[in-house]
Amino acid sequence: MTTVAAYAAPAAKAPLERTTIERRPVGEFDVLIDIKFAGICHSDIHQAQEGWGEAIFPMVPGHEIAGVVAEVGPGVTKFSVGDRVGVGCMVDSCRECDNCKAGLEQYCAKGNVPTYNGIGKDGEPTYGGYSTHVVVDENYTLRIPDGLSLDVAAPLLCAGITLYSPLRHWNAGPGKKVAILGMGGLGHMGVKIAHALGAEVTVLSQSLRKKDDGLKLGADHYYATSDPKTFEELRGSLDLIVSTVSAPLGLDQYLALLKTDGAFVNVGAPEEPVSLNLFSVIGGRKTLAGSGIGGIQETQEMLDFCAEHGFGAEIELISAAEINEAYERVQSSDVRYRFVIDTATI
Ligand SMILES: [Zn+2]
Ligand SMILES: [Zn+2]
């Protein structure tokens, strides 16, 4: 065991504070990662506040991890000391079910092992990236291409893959009209990725406050959902809408924006169940779907894609002492567009 510094929530809703945690010894197939940067994802806040059900405390959040390999186990073949690497939302899965075999580890039939607020195969709680080091199996470790700076790469490990996977699955590309609903940490990555895939990109945001940013990041059109005219103008025009919104939505009015065979895909989810008039999907043979992060191979593909197209996330770099303030700002949508912790300050 190695004792390392971390920022942890000691209990639900308690402010995060500096502490130390134990990392497991480097096993045969493990890499020890010297964490350089950790992104703050909205789901860190949900879990630290126990908004998604019972959680494990103390909790060290963080599943957008970028760093450098400091040590490798004797069986490791994929990485060497000094390699630039990342860790996303999961650190293990059963590796045997149909989903794991198909590279869909995020949908592991036995449940994947989350990077934090989970129980590892050793029976111990997992602790995330708000820390100086982490030990991860090489099969759940990603390579960060040289063209990507580690700070802007960190948020790709959750926000990036959460948007890349559905955009690929529903064939966002040339000739497709794709809307990204919500222009936050997830949404801004959706705009960049959908644009790089060659789609015609529309942002649907509550207001036009971030319009300049949206157009700069690759959107072709930008509409305010607070304006009823938006729903008249865009009616029946879109192939795909990816919703990053976690507040309750009037789904029927968004489904009306789709063309025949269009799809509305949720990557954000409100805490309460939603209601829907099923005629909204019957007319026009529409799909209402959801999508969660991506598999390991697809996450690597996404990192390579972002490096090839020369972009990471738009970030605000903060010190560890600013984490609690950053949480408050995320909750009031006051971040452009992802906070990233410089873990040297822990
Ligand atoms: Zn996340
Ligand atoms: Zn599995």
TrEMBL record:
Q: Does the keyword Coiled coil apply?
A: no
| GO MF term set | alcohol dehydrogenase (NADP+) activity; zinc ion binding
For activity, the cofactor(s) needed are: Zn(2+)
Keyword annotations for this protein, in alphabetical order, are: Metal-binding, Oxidoreductase, Zinc
Where are the bilayer-spanning segments? none
Please list the reactions this protein catalyses: a primary alcohol + NADP(+) = an aldehyde + NADPH + H(+)
Give a yes or no for keyword Chloroplast in this entry.
no
Q: Origin, by domain of life?
A: Bacteria
Task: Write down the top EC class of this protein.
Answer: oxidoreductase
Pfam families according to UniProt:
ADH_N, ADH_zinc_N
Family label: Belongs to the zinc-containing alcohol dehydrogenase family.
The EC number of this protein is 1.1.1.2
What the entry lists under SUPFAM superfamilies is as follows:
GroES-like (SSF50129), NAD(P)-binding Rossmann-fold domains (SSF51735)
Write down the InterPro entries for this protein, in alphabetical order.
ADH-like_C, ADH-like_N, ADH_Zn_CS, CAD-like, ER, GroES-like_sf, NAD(P)-bd_dom_sf
Question: What is this protein's record name?
Answer: alcohol dehydrogenase (NADP(+))
The Enoyl reductase (ER) domain covers which part of the protein?
Answer: 14-341
